[in-house]
Amino acid sequence: MNRMKTAVSVFGAAALTMSLAACGGGDDFCDTAEQEFGSLDLNAMGNVMGDPDAAGEFADSARTVADAASGDAAEAWNTLADAMETLSEMDMSDPESMADVDMSALENLDQAALQESLEACA
Q1: How many domains in the chain?
Q2: How far apart are CA 83 and CA 27, in angstroms?
């Protein structure tokens, strides 16, 4: 998978957090996920792709959610955090800057595990 397609796929996975606005809460994971991502809007998500600082902040939030998760969900959220940290290191306007970036975190993202963890909160 080329780097741009991989980065776009991570953006799609990050957009899964949009469903957290309807998160029902009731346990530590759901409460943490809603606190970290519940107020995001789709327009703000574009900042994650184009702004390394926003990607870094998203990574921090994903790591916080991972700390509240367990099992496969924790692994998936940590992988998302790793991927967002990788995105924060890229300069999307400079293809050469992307040549040496380790994309393995992006390629191993388990989007299904992320979605399942969020559906448990609904």
Answers
A1: 1
A2: 26
Q: How far is CA 110 from CA 25, 44, 71, 89, 92, in A?
A: 23, 23, 13, 21, 23
6: Cβ–Cβ under 8 A, 6 or more apart, which residues? 103, 106, 107
| Model confidence pLDDT, tens digit, residues 46-69 | 667 677 888 888 889 999 999 999
Q: Residue 64: which of 49, 84, 90 has the closest Cα?
A: 84
> For residue 83, what are the contacts with CB-CB under 8 A and spacing of at least 6?
10, 13, 105, 106, 109
Within a domain: residue 90?
yes
**Residue 20, domain member (yes or no):** no
Q: Which residue, among 4, 2, 13, 14, has the nearest Cα to 90 in the 3D structure?
A: 4
User: What range defines the domain where residue 81 resides?
Assistant: 3-11+25-119
pLDDT higher than 60, residue 17? no
| Paired tokens of 86 | 């990788």
Say what the pTM is: 0.74
> Does the residue 16 lie in any domain?
no
